[in-house]
Amino acid sequence: MRILIVGNGGREHALLWKIRRDEPAAELFATRPNAGMAALCTGVDLSPTDVDGLLEWAGEHGMDLTIVGPEAPLAAGIVDRFQEAGLAIFGPTAAAARIEASKAWAKGLMSRWGIPTAAYETFTEAEAAEGYIRHAGAPVVVKASGLAAGKGAIVCATVEEAVEAARGMLAGDDFGGAGDTVVVEEFMEGEELSIFAVCDGTVAVYLLPSQDHKAVGEGDTGPNTGGMGAYAPVSLVTPALLDEARRRIFEPTLAALADEGAPFTGLLYGGLMKTDEGLKVVEFNCRFGDPETQVILPLLKSSLVELLRTVADGRSVEELTPVFREGAAVTTVIASGGYPGSYEKGKAITIPDGLEDDDLTVFHAGTRRTSEGGLETAGGRVLAVTAVGASVSEAAERSRAGAAAIDVDGAFFRRDIGWRERARTQEST
Ligand code: AMP
Ligand code: GLY
């Protein structure tokens, strides 16, 4: 079997790592792989958004399955093109990917179908947005509608801050074209959860619930990043809460997408908030989350390839039940100094020999080989150190110790990944 992974970050390393375990004999390929991925596959020197190039390459090299990591190629229609050419690919069509690529469209879909989410309005004119913000009051959230690498949502504590954010997007050029339409929405209070559903267009199967740590600083302080760590499972997600997520959010959303002519095949990522009024959608993503994937896949005992292939081949996932091992996983992200602001690349990385074992894996994100064969940084998020243990506390200890043992010039990491879960379990004992 030949499998191509599109993308080259920590999420894609985790996908590749799991696929290698599922299918030891498969031939694996990835676009411009980072140093960790390069050890597991053959590199393909094409950009993840070069849809024409990828289509031609996959056809020529007889790929049996292509798995798309990031949202940009999905929004650009890579799945539509592969399907037209009769090539199996895991991911949603461009029409279905709008659930992430256009927040304005996603909010409209939720409102048409009564899917619980924050109250909102969309704007293309700064003055109208300002009037609404002044009327609504703070706190309030201002979001660029288009793809903005996870940075397009601004939680504003004051009306002035919100007006400035909306003006920056609508009258200025903040977030480029992604900020030409702005969503202003009600601030919701509660704990956030990530729930991943593998969908075949009609039916979904659910992976373990996880929680991301988006803020750069310990205690969830400072600006948002792509994610500084994650853990799974989340004890807050009881069977009853998961049932609520299915019945009130995922099932109606899948039905809505199918009814509106955009059935969702792929990974539907629900970023949900547990509010006093029940679960509400913060956002949907049309792909695996990063770094949540780095904790979910190390716990998945059953085959990921079978799950993704079933969807890519157009079959139903109804009979498939993913099986997870007992215990918990925690990942700690090591980031370049300065991230999520500007940072330098090319800093030396030293990973001690023998650090990794059955329960500790170092997933690479922004890494590359130097000409001398050493390892250096090539991005904001550099590595994700995942540990598996009997509990979140145990896994967190190991993950943190693993991150501390790795030397990356000028880098930093959060030492408190999983703190909400640890606080909860301490409360209950
Ligand atoms: P998004 O890009 O929509 O996922 O938003 C990024 C982050 O901003 C979320 O993970 C939340 O922490 C926060 N956020 C977004 N929308 C809201 C909201 N309506 N209320 C409170 N926090 C929000
Ligand atoms: N972990 C956040 C994301 O993947 O968008």
Tell me what you see in this structure.
There is one protein chain. This protein is of the alpha+beta class and 429 residues long. It has 4 domains: 2-93, Rossmann fold (3-Layer(aba) Sandwich); 125-180, 2-Layer Sandwich (Dna Ligase, domain 1); 191-312, 2-Layer Sandwich (D-amino Acid Aminotransferase, Chain A, domain 1), CATH 3.30.470.20; 328-427, Alpha-Beta Complex (Glycinamide Ribonucleotide Synthetase, Chain A, domain 4). It has 14 helices and 24 strands. Strand 1, helix 1 and strand 2 (27-31) form a beta-alpha-beta unit. The model has no long low-confidence stretch (mean pLDDT 95). It binds adenosine monophosphate and glycine.
List the main descriptive attributes of the protein structure presented here.
429 residues, alpha+beta, Rossmann fold, Dna Ligase, domain 1, D-amino Acid Aminotransferase, Chain A, domain 1, 4 domains, 5-stranded parallel β-sheet, 5-stranded antiparallel β-sheet, 14 helices, 24 strands, globular, binds adenosine monophosphate, binds glycine
Write a compact overview of the structure shown.
With 429 residues, the chain is α+β, with helices and mostly antiparallel strands.
Topology:
Layout: E1 2-6, H1 10-22, E2 27-31, H2 35-38, E3 42-44, H3 51-60, E4 65-68, H4 71-75, H5 78-84, E5 89-90, H6 94-101, H7 103-113, E6 120-123, H8 126-136, E7 140-144, E8 153-156, H9 159-170, E9 182-186, E10 191-200, E11 204-206, E12 211-212, E13 215-217, E14 221-224, E15 229-232, H10 239-259, E16 265-275, E17 278-285, H11 293-296, H12 304-312, E18 328-335, E19 348-350, E20 360-364, E21 367-369, E22 375-377, E23 381-389, H13 392-405, E24 407-408, H14 419-428
Parallel strand pairs: 1-2, 1-4, 2-3, 4-5
Antiparallel strand pairs: 6-9, 7-8, 7-9, 10-11, 10-16, 12-15, 13-14, 15-18, 16-17, 18-23, 19-22, 19-24, 20-23, 21-22
The structure holds adenosine monophosphate (AMP) and glycine (GLY).
Residues 150, 212, 227, 285, 289-290, 292 line the site of glycine.
